[in-house]
Design goal:
Blueprint (H helix, E strand, L loop, with lengths): L2 H25 L7 H16 L2 E2 L5 E2 L3 H31 L3 H24 L18 H33 L3 H10 L2 H7 L1 H17 L7 H36 L8 H15 L4 H13 L10 H5 L6 H7 L2 H9 L8 H7 L21 H15 L11 H10 L7 H9 L1 H8 L22 H4 L5
Antiparallel strand pairs: 1-2
Helix pairs in contact: 1-3, 1-4, 1-5, 2-3, 3-4, 3-8, 4-5, 5-6, 10-11, 10-16, 10-19, 11-15, 11-16, 14-15, 15-16
Length: 463
């Protein structure tokens, strides 16, 4: 089945799920909340929807969930589903997204909010919750029950939302679900659940102004301004992060401009390192740090002393090889100039040429004394060296590359990381492209004899 067919099938399933859940919620729906309340929630949710931020992998995030969850607490599953669906559709139209993306985003929001409300009520949660009553006692059993179930409500909403989005991104980008979910969700899921407490404030302001003034939507004004301000500040911070990333890539490209044979090398090593780190189950923060170290692992080559070595067509002499081996330490020195890169990132850059058997450089570390990120970068660096054309040889095929990794498993490389690379479809897909990798390792993957001279790998002048 093609990627497009899998995407359509999955999106169609989510649409069907939204229709079934919406129909079921309609049968037990509360009375219509009124046009003022209905339109106010949609308008504010739409505003928050437009203040989205780009996630790491082909997705965007927004704080419109605040209004969706508040609507679920106040009006029940059906009307909150309508509010979530309409506000999301308006946001999709404003962004000009493709029709299939529009219907998916609308449907997954409906599935998430309606399912969360239905679970909340099935567990005994009250709509509206007990803590929104005119007089509340925090020690009340009903209030404590509804407050506890609120976090079940929020967790269900975010888990469904993140799983559905990660699944469709995994299908369309041909990455593993684990990698996509880890990069986009793992680090922010707790933050989202914590931020959902603002939904309680929205619901309280709405019911309080409705009770005091007879017009609940007025209370929502007190929520919009601070939420919009927070999103604006977060957007500026996100733009600053993007600018920093672009500057790092510009610096790397400037370095690689000296060596036409390794153009794009650091970008490819970063992509491989990210995929391997995700397969190893590292946290989102660790994956990001490994990515950064991989991107910057060769920045020391910007020193003028390396320029003639990088331009040399023939192999390096022993003296030149010794000089070239100092680049990892010089790279770490440059990386350490940036305070946020000191420690984890700096150490991984410094040690990315250490060998599992202790025969590497600069310090001859062995085994797990070598930082994990450095072990990942070493394999990624070696794979890229083997799969790109060099003056002294052509690029190597996937079978030869994997066979060489197996050959030096436990010598040059961490055996656990080699096993991950060999077994991972996502990593193999990055190496050779999605069109040439099957979902299962080909038979006879590891030939008994490899005709390519393996010694050339470990003495490559671009190491």
């Amino acid at each position: 089945m093609t990627r497009e067919a899998r995407t359509r099938l999955f999106v169609g399933s989510v649409i069907a799920g939204a229709a079934v859940l919406g129909g079921g919620a309609y049968l037990i729906s509360s009375p219509f909340p009124g046009w003022w309340a209905f339109s106010s929630f949609i308008l504010i949710a739409f505003v928050l929807e437009t203040l989205n931020t780009q996630l790491r992998v082909h997705a965007k995030g927004s704080t419109s969930f605040i209004m969706h969850i508040a609507a679920g607490l106040l009006f029940g599953g059906y009307w909150s589903g309508v509010i979530a669906g309409v506000s999301t559709l308006l946001g999709e139209l404003a962004r000009g997204n493709q029709p299939i993306k529009m219907v998916f985003n609308v449907s997954q929001r409906i599935v998430a909010i309606v399912t969360a409300v239905l679970l909340y009520t099935s567990l005994g949660g009250r709509l509206p919750p007990s803590y929104l009553a005119p007089v509340i006692t925090l020690s009340s059993e009903a209030v404590q029950r509804d407050l506890g179930l609120f976090f079940v409500f929020a967790a269900t909403y975010f888990l469904l939302n993140s799983v559905l989005v990660s699944l469709v991104v995994s299908i369309t980008s041909e990455r593993t679900f684990r990698e996509v979910w880890s990069l986009n969700t793992r680090g922010v899921l707790g933050y989202d659940i914590g931020a959902s407490v603002i939904s309680l404030l929205v619901a309280w302001l709405y019911t309080s102004t409705q009770r005091w003034l007879g017009f609940g939507p007025i209370g929502l004004i007190g929520v919009v301004i601070p939420v919009v301000a927070v999103r604006h500040v977060y957007g500026l911070y996100h733009q600053l992060q993007e600018s920093g990333e672009e500057l790092l890539q510009l610096m790397v490209k400037a370095i690689e401009a000296r060596d036409p044979y390794t153009s794009g090398h650091s970008i490819r090593v970063r992509a491989l390192s990210r995929a391997i780190a995700a397969e190893l189950g590292l946290s989102a923060r660790e994956i990001e740090q490994v990515e950064t170290a991989a991107l910057l692992h060769d920045v020391g080559k910007i020193h003028e002393e390396f320029a003639p070595l990088l331009r040399k067509e023939s192999r390096l002499t022993p003296e030149e090889t010794v000089l070239m081996q100092t680049h990892s330490a010089k790279s770490a020195e440059l990386v350490g100039v940036i305070s946020k890169f000191r420690g984890f990132i700096e150490d991984n850059v410094r040690h990315h040429h250490e060998r599992w058997d202790g025969q590497g450089y600069p310090f001859g570390l062995a085994g797990k004394h070598i930082p994990l990120g450095a072990r990942i970068i070493l394999i990624s660096d070696t794979i890229d060296a083997m799969t790109t054309d060099r003056p002294y040889r052509k690029r190597l095929g996937l079978e030869v590359v994997l066979a060489e990794l197996q050959k030096y498993r436990g010598q040059q490389f961490d055996p656990d990381i080699v096993d991950v690379v060999v077994s991972s479809v996502a990593v193999r897909r990055i190496i050779v492209g999605p069109q040439t990798v099957s979902d299962m390792p080909p038979k006879g993957l590891y030939p008994k004899k490899v005709t390519w001279p393996s010694a050339a790998l470990w003495k490559a002048r671009r190491a």
